[in-house]
Design brief:
Layout: E1 2-5, E2 8-14, H1 22-29, H2 38-48, E3 55-62, E4 65-74, E5 79-87, H3 96-107, E6 112-117, H4 119-127, E7 131-135, E8 142-148
């Protein structure tokens, strides 16, 4: 999938095997994982590469530079859950996260896309068209974010 983004092409492609820097992937995914230890991050990365599951990991590149990552779990032919999404901190709020979400929606022909998020991430998801529902839980505020696509 290609998109025009500030005059340059941005691409979203599936990560297969170890064709990308594992260090970059660890550092970027850690932005989306609360209390992330290196062991926990490596465990999460390895689950995306196990065969037989419905997990998919994609990387966004801009001008041949890795700028973001999104991981989803496909629950059905028309419903997926965003498990992880992260953008290089220097490039946040520039449309990269939205680009990744919109490409996932189109590529998988989704009718429903959902996730859970904290306060700050919930603002991002709301800006991308998700409806927010506060989850009554202990600890920091959490939201169930759901986008129904027409």
């Amino acid at each position: 999938m290609w998109s025009q983004h500030t005059g340059c092409l941005m691409e979203l492609e599936a990560i297969e095997g170890t064709c990308y820097s594992i260090k970059w992937l660890q550092d970027t995914l850690s932005l989306s994982i609360h209390c992330s230890s290196e062991e926990k991050i490596n465990e999460i990365i390895s689950t995306y590469f196990q065969t037989g599951n419905q997990l998919h990991l994609f990387i966004a590149t801009y001008a041949d530079t890795s700028v973001g990552v999104i991981g989803i779990e496909q629950l059905s032919a028309t419903h997926a859950v965003i498990r992880h999404i992260a953008v290089d901190p220097d490039l946040q709020w520039k449309g990269i996260g939205r680009f990744m979400i919109e490409n996932i929606e189109r590529q998988f022909r989704l009718q429903v896309l959902s996730t859970e998020a904290d306060d700050l991430a919930a603002l991002f998801f709301e800006a991308c068209g998700f409806q927010l529902e506060r989850i009554e839980a202990f600890g920091p505020e959490r939201y169930r974010c759901t986008k129904v696509l027409l």
